[in-house]
Amino acid sequence: MARAVRFYRHGGPDVLRIETIDVPPPATGEVQIRVKALGLNRAEALLRRGTYIERATFPSGLGLEAAGIVEAVGDDVTSFVPGDIVSIVPPLSMVRWPAYAELATFPVELIVKHPPELGFKKAAAVWMQYLTAYGALVDIARLGRGDIVAITAASSSVGIAAIQIANRVGATAVALTRTSAKLGALRDAGAAHVVASDEDDIRARLEAIAGSNGVRVVFDAVGGPAFEPLTAAMSPGGILIEYGGLSPEPTPFPLFNALTKSLVLRGYLVHEIIRDPARLAQAKSFILDGLSDRTLQPVIARTFRFEDIVEAHRFLESNDQFGKIVVTI
């Protein structure tokens, strides 16, 4: 028996309940961990509200990231033993493998032995943000030294991860945020430049920063009307990678900019990295190296207790956080 967070209908944070449930032992190819910390993601709020790419089956669990101690392993698992300190690469289905629980079970290929000095809270804040940013910037866009990358929603955990990864590969990170309130924090996080999209002329600011070379890579979580000025400031042959859709407004296709500059506009889900063993192995190596040399350092916005999961979800939806929200058990 163990406590787990479940919900029986779609809705706001108040639909979440903590219940005691039976937890079966891990099956073949699975590892069960005693969870010490959870990393919260916007995807979990979307599942809860019924607007995620996956459908909940009631009563439904949820959660994509965890860190803890191996409790038990499936019969054929030889790479982990009880007592190992591990963290979790997000599963393809959080309904099938939910993380919000005292005991959680995952496929063995998603279990990682992270640097022990990281601690449980930071380890729970690693994999979604860094895999998402790495997959877009390094695996797909081949971001490198001398490139300029514009990063929207830059104060999110993925945005901060993208800034750190850009710096690690020698690129120039331009952080876009709605107002100048987080300007200092974004500079401290490693952004070379900060653009306040509600206060600045996005195109003019990006063109002033990038000069004649233009912005080769745009990493966007927002969509909406900003597509026009973002693409206008891009370099010929540049690539815009869309991984979100936070704007409630329609996203116009920037036909003129796309045609005249031969731009690539590409949708992206981190699942394409996670489901490809070779690409996932390369991503894990890059991220673990960055954690070890401290060029990648998870930023924790706020920590909540497991018993305060409803309040943690309210904070998740406030958009006031800078970095990752973590829940401890």
TrEMBL record:
SUPFAM superfamilies: GroES-like, NAD(P)-binding Rossmann-fold domains. The keyword Transcription regulation does not apply. The keyword Oxidoreductase applies. Signal peptide: none annotated. Residues 11-327 form the Enoyl reductase (ER) domain. Pfam families: ADH_N, ADH_zinc_N. Keywords: NADP, Oxidoreductase. This is NADPH:quinone reductase-like Zn-dependent oxidoreductase.
